[in-house]
Amino acid sequence: MVTERLAGASAIFTPLLSRAHPYVVAMAPPHLLAPTPAGLFCAAGDFYIDPLRPVPRALITHAHSDHARRGHGDVLATRETLDIMALRYGEDFCARRQVAAYGQSQRIGDVDVSFHPAGHVLGSAQVRVADERQRIVVSGDYKRASDPTCAAFEPVACDVFITEATFGLPVFRHPDASLEADKLIASCALFPDRAHLVGAYALGKAQRMMVLIRQQGWERPIYIHGALEKITEYYAREGNDFGEIRKVSAAERSKLAGEIVLCTPASLQDIWSRKFPDPVAAHASGWMRVRARARQRGVELPLVVSDHADWNDLCATILETQCSQVWITHGEADALVHWAGCIGLDARPLHLIGYGDEEDAVEAQT
Amino acid sequence: MNRFAHLLDRLAFEHARNSKLRILGDYFRHTDDPDRGYALAAMTGGLAFAHAKAGLIRTLICERCDQTLFEMSYDYVGDLSETVALLWPSPPLREGHNFPPPPSLSQVVETLHATPKAALRQVLAQFLDQLDETGRWALLKLITGGLRIGVSARLAKTALASLGDVEPNAIEEIWPGLTPPYLDLFAWIEGRADKPVVSDPAPFRAAMLAHAIEETNFVSLKPEDFIAEWKWDGVRVQAVTGYDEAGEPVGRLYSRTGEDISGAFPDVLEAICARSFGAASIDGELLIVREGRVESFGALQQRLNRKKVDARLIAEYPAHVRAYDLLSEDGEDLRSLPFAQRRMRLARFLETRAPARFDLSPLVPFATWEALAQARRDPASAGAGEDANAIEGVMLKRVDSIYVPGRPTGPWWKWKRDPFTLDAVLMYAQRGHGKRSSFCSDYTFGVWRQGAEGDELVPVGKAYFGFTDAELKLLDKWVRDHTVNRFGPVREVEANHKTGLVLEVAFEGVQRSARHKSGVAMRFPRVSRIRWDKPARDADRLEAVEALIGERKRAD
Ligand SMILES: [Zn+2]
Ligand SMILES: [Zn+2]
Question: Which of A163, A217, B75, B137 makes an SS bond possible with B85, Cβ 3.0 to 4.6 Å?
Answer without folding.
Answer: B137
